[in-house]
Amino acid sequence: MLSTPFFPPSCHSTQVSIIGAGKVGSTLAQRIVEQNIANVVLLDVLEGVPQGIALDLMQAGAVERHDRQVMGTNNYADTAASDIVVITAGKPRIPGMSREDLISINAKIVAEAAKNSIEYSPNAVLIIVTNPLDIMTYVAWKVTQVEPYRIMGMAGVLDSARFEAFLGIELGMSVANIDAIVLGSHGDLMVPLPRYTTINGIPITELIEPKTIETIVERTRQGGGEIVQLLKTGGAYFAPASSVRIMVESILRQQSRLLPTCCYLQGEYGLNDIFLGVPAWLGCRGVERVLELELTPSEHEALMKCAESVRGGINQALEILNV
Q1: pLDDT value at position 94?
Q2: Which of 10, 66, 295, 313 has minimal CB crowding within 10 Å?
Q3: Cα–Cα distance measured from residue 115 to residue 142, given in angstroms and rounded to the nearest whole number
């Protein structure tokens, strides 16, 4: 005869809340539970949608053989005591629309989501995915005023993955051998760094012709837009979800992985009071520290151009929110 299991009150199961049950949010929920990283609360304003997705994922868990829980809800109270909150809510891009075109719509959505999330999970780490990414990350920090290391944006992991994928296609080789890094904003002004991009430790500048590298760099900058043009009704979601997953895993499992992340800068790279993509170690408290790479004058100039564009978007968003 089986005895009734006893779980002491001190048992703590990690929880990730995902705000927005669209394609990125729902795919991220799947990634997190199927890799046994955390339980998930999936929140959306559409009644029945997060609940239905959660039920579907729970049934899939019986096949995938994991016991992680997924809850769908329309109530922020159900996200209470989350370790991490990921904000994916917002309007996606459609053909002909830039990320910056989304500022007026998504600034209000992200501000509300961030404030509500922190109200119920005051100690959570926030990861912003909504576009325009760098601007929305600043908005979320401004309206919550949490410590800067507890808030970050997902962009660099995705942009670097696109760079790696295109290099793998060009070379006809496994992406497992390729390590790329991309700095700056999540958009057309991003700064891929071929000098710091390697294949088994060998810089690609020693293996690929400069003209070919520039072609791949430009395709990386347009990587998201290329998918938008093909899908016509939205943007990428598989790669973004995978990119957030690795950030969540590094934080919850205290891996302190060095990942390109949209971080708050306080003097690094000569920049202050801005969120921008740079390499950073992610651990249990969020952003543990930023790695400041040595840049050439042209690379630094490109990064400053990114920052100038992001500042303009930040000012526009803050004016809309009147903060």
Answers
A1: 74
A2: 10
A3: 10
